[in-house]
Inverse folding.
């Protein structure tokens, strides 16, 4: 019995030593897992910070695009106003030209009428030298 008791005690001691070794290795594995989790948390925090920065940049770009859209609309409206004003001036000029042409035609008609009055004049005699 002494021998079997010793074997049981040796087996129990061996199991206790194995258990202690497993506990220490599990603790080191748990610490490694904890370090990995902390590193992952830092990476996630960094990614969130980068995403927030990118979102603010995108918002800024969108705001700038809205402002740029209004600048372009303003330019287009001003060009349309200038173009319409030019067309109005051309139309006025065209109307003035028509009035001027009509006036000149009337004057030509008057001058032709005056010429008809002078058609009855005697011919001018030209003397040669």
């Amino acid at each position: 019995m002494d021998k079997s008791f010793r074997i049981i005690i040796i087996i129990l001691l061996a199991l206790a030593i194995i258990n202690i070794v497993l506990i220490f290795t599990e603790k080191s594995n748990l610490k490694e897992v904890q370090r990995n989790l902390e590193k992952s948390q830092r990476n996630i925090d960094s990614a969130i910070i980068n995403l927030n920065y990118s979102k603010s940049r995108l918002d800024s770009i969108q705001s700038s695009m809205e402002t740029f859209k209004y600048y372009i609309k303003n330019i287009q409206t001003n060009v349309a106003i200038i173009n319409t004003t030019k067309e109005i001036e051309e139309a006025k000029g065209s109307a003035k030209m028509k009035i001027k042409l009509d006036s000149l035609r009337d004057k030509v008609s008057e001058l032709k009428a005056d010429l008809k009055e002078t058609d009855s004049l005697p011919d001018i005699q030209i003397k040669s030298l």
Remarks:
- The radius of gyration is 54 Å.
- The chain has a mean pLDDT of 82.
- Residues 2-118 form the longest helix (117 residues).
